[in-house]
Amino acid sequence: MDGAFVGTWRPHRPQGPIMAQFTSPGPKYSIPGATGFVGHSPIKSRAPAYTCRGTKPSVTGGCGPGPRYFVEPDITRTGKYVPPGAHIRGLPKINTEVTPGPSDYHTETSNKHVFKCPPVQSMAFRHEAFRADHPPGPGTYTLPRLMGPNTAYTTASPCYSMKWKSKHDRFDADLSKTPGPAAFPKIEVDTYKRRAPIYTMGAQTRIGGDRTIKPGPADYRTGKVTLIKPQAPETTFGIRHSIYTTPLIVE
Fold it and tell me: What is any one of the record's Gene Ontology cellular component terms (predicted)?
């Protein structure tokens, strides 16, 4: 056999793509689309999606009574509107005993209410002025001061008071009459420093009872001191009880 032929196999063109011929996955992976909502490409802008639903079924029963009932026009959403009305009643009965006659009225002055008339001034005598109060004269009032610290409506400058000379430390003062060091009281150190604790020493108290009888050295057991020294564990040996003895049970 020649070298170009290996067994029954002969070189030929492949009928479809062979994955060994590609360095990348090839047509195994597809680029996601840019349309639709499901499977949209994450690198593309996606517009809002709307769901189109079907038509609602027709309602078998009505939700209102319809034109069967008549609603009056004066019925509003807040209740029945009642317009204001006036009640017509009879004339009240007036009991009049003495009524004025025609001569009691003066119709001469009625022309100024019906016709246009010029203004009319009444001339009367001047009344005499009568005043019970006596107003103050011009000399009663005093103008406010313009000098000094307490002025009413002007700006006051600073004022200084001149006093006499003090008698303290004068040139003719006798310095021998000044107080000496012993004239001032001694200031305690606790006034300006931290105060130390103070202890009071009193007399020795007397021990009550008979002081002739006192414990001797033999009355103390120093071997059993366990307050300030360590103590070894101690074992106490008691009486051996029989295992057949019934124990005492008390309620």
Answer: cytoskeleton
| Residues 155-185 pLDDT 10s | 877 788 888 777 777 777 777 777 888 888 8
Q: In this structure, are residues 148 and 156 in contact, taking their beta carbons and an 8 Å threshold?
A: yes
Q: Any idea what the Cα angle at residue 183 is, between residues 179 and 187, rounded to 5°?
A: 130
What letters, b where the CB count within 10 A reaches 16 and e where it falls short, cover 105-132?
eeeeeeeeeeeeeeeeeeeeeeeeeeee
CA distance 152 to 146: 8
What SS3 state is found at 79? strand
Per the CB < 8 A criterion, the answer to whether 39 and 32 are in contact is yes
- Indicate if the pLDDT at residue 2 is higher than 60: no
DSSP 8-class letter at 76: E
pLDDT band at 64 (very low <50, low <70, confident <90, very high): low
Q: Identify which of 40, 21, 22, 43 has the alpha carbon closest to the alpha carbon of residue 32.
A: 40
Nearest to 154 by CA among 162, 163, 164, 143: 143
The DSSP element (H or E) to which 80 belongs, if any, is strand 79-80
What's the pLDDT band for 1 if we cut at 50, 70, 90? very low
pLDDT in tens, 207-221: 666 666 778 888 877
**Cβ–Cβ < 8 Å for 33, 46:** no
Residue type, 2: D
